[in-house]
Amino acid sequence: MMLLAHFGKALVWLAALTALLLSGPLLTLAFGSATVRGDWRTATHRSAGIAPDPSTHPEAIVQVYASRTFGWRGAFAVHTWVAAKPADAERYARYEVIGWRALGGGSALSVSEGAPPDAEWYGAAPVLIGDIRGAQAEAVIKKLPQAAQSYPFAYRYSAWPGPNSNTFVAHLGREIPELRLNLPSLAIGKDYLPNGQLVSPAPSGTGWQVSLGGIVGVTAASTEGIEVNLFGLVAGVDLLHPALKFPGVGRIPGGL
């Protein structure tokens, strides 16, 4: 009986904690940071005017972007991608995973020069979360094609808990330390590890994480700080650039 009582109390605490974490996405919906309105067929993919113009910026550039996902899912998560331009190149290449491409057995992995590097993601404006220039960018660009091709989930996609677009970008971070990746806590899927792994370097490469299928886990790294993942809802604290992290909201202060 005592064991059942302790188990019952644990369930109550787990339910209370989950409700607290869910309050972030609910507030995000309530205050309009994400919306359930709109039609994906007419949603915009305009350039946000963030990426430097290749005609006036000949140096090598690598940028990492994040945008709220489409519809109600934007209250929980962002979509991330990498844009890269070698020195003197006329356009950027976008490296990302796009879920619908995996339908019917296709590859979700996309490397494209067709879309603007800083395009809105179905109407949601992107936020720049990484910017590398010059020789450091060239070092990243040399490794990008091979790192992208080594992604183990090209033909699998699941918005939750992964593998998804954020799983892919986290993979790039682990494969290319020079990327100095710092994914938002809202990047659900970044903690989904390949091959049933339980322990892995953090996406930034500056620490470690323990994750059970991307559903429950802990990350401790100098770049990410301390993060706790419960059902894909990530809360934590950034010690290097002081801020709290809360599901749906992101950094407090600091946005994503």
Explain what the structure shows:
With 256 residues, the chain is of the alpha+beta class. It has 3 helices and 12 strands, in the order αβββββααβββββββ. It has helices spanning 2-30, 134-149, 165-175; strands spanning 61-68, 78-85, 93-97, 109-112, 127-133, 199-201, 207-212, 216-221, 225-230, 233-238, 243-246, 250-252. The strands form 2 sheets. A 7-stranded antiparallel beta sheet has the order 6-7-8-9-10-11-12. A 5-stranded antiparallel beta sheet has the order 4-3-2-1-5. Strand 7 (207-212) and strand 8 form a beta hairpin. The protein is globular and about 70 Å long. 41% of the residues are buried.
Question: What's the topology here?
Answer:
Blueprint: H1 2-30, E1 61-68, E2 78-85, E3 93-97, E4 109-112, E5 127-133, H2 134-149, H3 165-175, E6 199-201, E7 207-212, E8 216-221, E9 225-230, E10 233-238, E11 243-246, E12 250-252
Antiparallel strand pairs: 1-2, 1-5, 2-3, 3-4, 6-7, 7-8, 8-9, 9-10, 10-11, 11-12
End-to-end span in angstroms?
Answer: 46 Å
Radius of gyration: 19 Å
Q: Main beta sheet: strand number and arrangement?
A: 7 strands, antiparallel
Spatial strand order of the main sheet = 6-7-8-9-10-11-12
Name the quaternary structure: single chain
* Run of helices and strands: HEEEEEHHEEEEEEE
- Beta-strand percentage? 25-35%
Give the overall silhouette: globular
Q: How much is the average pLDDT?
A: 93
User: Counting H and I runs of at least 4 residues, what is the number of helices?
Assistant: 3
Specify the helix fraction band.
10-25%
The number of strands is: 12
Uncertain ranges: none
Alpha-beta classification: alpha+beta
